[in-house]
Amino acid sequence: MSTTRPYSPGDRGPEPSGASGASEGAAPVVGAATGAAAPSVPSGPTDGTPQERSRQIRRLRLEGESGVVPLARDFTRQALYAWGWLPADSADRRAAAEDVLLVVSELVTNACLHAEGPDELFLSCDNKVIRVEVSDRGAGQPAPRNPHRAGRPGGHGMFIVERLCLDWGVVRAADHPGKTVWAEMGAPA
């Protein structure tokens, strides 16, 4: 289901203080620079509620980088290892990890093809949901090609995202051109 709300129906709310550059209770700063000079800023659990304490966050700046799709997949794979999704001990867990990698690939590829490239990849994981966000400076609105034609090349990215995710949507940046495309997937049991 395509949406334009910034959070899934469960309203996960803004990121904890410091995670997105916004203070707690304030609207999240979508697509803004994290202030980090390093290409990636991994962070562990936060210090808030029990749910926030179990949330793990990773960011990767992609602006100006080359080979961003494999870079994003490798970064995501490392996060999945750190978060215990990999190595998978069952076919279901292996499929869930591969689905996350595929969604990351599709969202980053779409930013490359339709939005002058991605600016940042943001991953967050708690014990129920993994959230993938890709920010870019594009003005377009991603949507699955309708009708979907499986036999034709190209145009399958958002259809794949829609099929694999619990929910996905687009948040427009308030202070500059651009958007963040987000997708949420259930954590393996």
In short:
The chain is an alpha+beta fold.
- Mean pLDDT across the residues is 75
Order of helices and strands: EHEHHEEHEE
Biggest beta sheet attributes: 6 strands, mixed
Q: Number of helix segments? A: 4
Q: Which assembly state applies to the chains in this document?
A: single chain
Label the CATH architecture: 2-Layer Sandwich
User: How would you sum up the global shape?
Assistant: globular
Unreliable residue runs: 1-52
Measured distance between first and last alpha carbons: 23 Å
The CATH superfamily is known as: Histidine kinase-like ATPase, C-terminal domain
What's the CATH class label?
Alpha Beta
**Total number of beta strands:** 6
Strand order of the largest sheet: 1-5-6-4-3-2
User: Number of domains in the coordinates?
Assistant: 1
CATH topology: Heat Shock Protein 90
Structural class: alpha+beta
C-alpha Rg (nearest Å) = 16 Å
The proportion of residues forming helix, as a percent range, comes to: 25-40%
Keywords, separated by commas or semicolons:
disordered N terminus; single chain; 4 helices; 189 residues; alpha+beta; Heat Shock Protein 90
Can you lay out the helices and strands and say which pair or pack?
Elements: E1 2-3, H1 50-53, E2 56-61, H2 68-82, H3 91-114, E3 118-125, E4 129-136, H4 157-164, E5 167-172, E6 179-186
Parallel strand pairs: 1-5
Antiparallel strand pairs: 2-3, 3-4, 4-6, 5-6
Helix pairs in contact: 2-3, 3-4
GO molecular function: ATP binding; protein serine/threonine kinase activity
Protein name: ATP-binding protein
InterPro entries: Anti-sigma-factor_SerPK, HATPase_C_sf, HATPase_dom
